[in-house]
């Protein structure tokens, strides 16, 4: 069975974006970049990876899931951001923009969609954001891979949106600190 991995950059205080969806304070350069790319190859938009000379094949995922706000970060320049992956965007209010051929837009229940995807053959499924979608899929997430950044946001989009209080045990798989201050923290369900 395929696994769902929530792989995302997060501030030390638990935000994946600022109050106006800012994410420019996350470190993209530094000694962490190569190590994390090696482990999670294929998790950059296709066009950006190609421009940087990074291979997108043979990564751990063949499918990426996004909420509309995460997807919209690249618009209008990147309406088909991860051409090398199957892309599914969850939205109840938006239509596919011009140039989004190959991107699936759905208003279906995310849990139902993920359970169907897990039953299919293939590589891993990557949840790349956002916090509200992560909250809806919290019970379906098999792995959590956090690029913990040494920055405090104070407010913004929470890692798991407005997930109600319900402690869930996670088991650490690997904790990799880098000189840049970024820590890759990987967990699985306890």
Task: Outline the structure in words.
With 190 residues, this protein is of the alpha/beta class. It has one domain (4-183): Dihydrofolate Reductase, subunit A (3-Layer(aba) Sandwich). The chain is 19% helix and 30% strand. It is built from five helices and ten strands, in the order E-E-H-H-E-H-E-E-H-E-H-E-E-E-E. It has helices spanning 31-39, 46-51, 68-72, 110-119, 131-136, and strands at residues 4-11, 15-17, 61-67, 86-90, 103-106, 124-129, 143-149, 157-158, 170-177, 183-189. The strands form two sheets. It has an eight-stranded mixed beta sheet. A hairpin with a 5-residue loop joins strand 9 (170-177) and strand 10 (183-189). The relative contact order is 0.26. This is Dihydrofolate reductase. Residues 4-184 form the Bacterial bifunctional deaminase-reductase C-terminal domain. It comes from Isoptericola halotolerans.
Question: What's the gist of this structure?
Answer:
This protein is an alpha/beta fold and 190 residues long. The protein has 5 helices and 10 strands; from the N terminus they run ββααβαββαβαββββ.
Explain the layout of strands and helices.
Elements: E1 4-11, E2 15-17, H1 31-39, H2 46-51, E3 61-67, H3 68-72, E4 86-90, E5 103-106, H4 110-119, E6 124-129, H5 131-136, E7 143-149, E8 157-158, E9 170-177, E10 183-189
What gyration radius follows from the Cα positions, in whole Å? 16 Å
CATH superfamily: Dihydrofolate Reductase, subunit A
| Order of strands, widest sheet | 5-4-3-6-1-7-10-9
**DSSP strand tally:** 10
Biggest beta sheet attributes: 8 strands, mixed
Q: Which structural class best describes the helix and strand composition?
A: alpha/beta
Please give the share of residues in helix.
Answer: 10-25%
CATH topology: Dihydrofolate Reductase, subunit A
What CATH architecture would you give? 3-Layer(aba) Sandwich
Shape, per Cα inertia axes: globular
Binned strand content: 25-35%
- Distance separating the two termini: 18 Å
CATH class: Alpha Beta
> SSE string, helix = H, strand = E?
EEHHEHEEHEHEEEE
Pfam families: RibD_C
Protein name: Dihydrofolate reductase
Domain Bacterial bifunctional deaminase-reductase C-terminal: 4-184
Organism: Isoptericola halotolerans
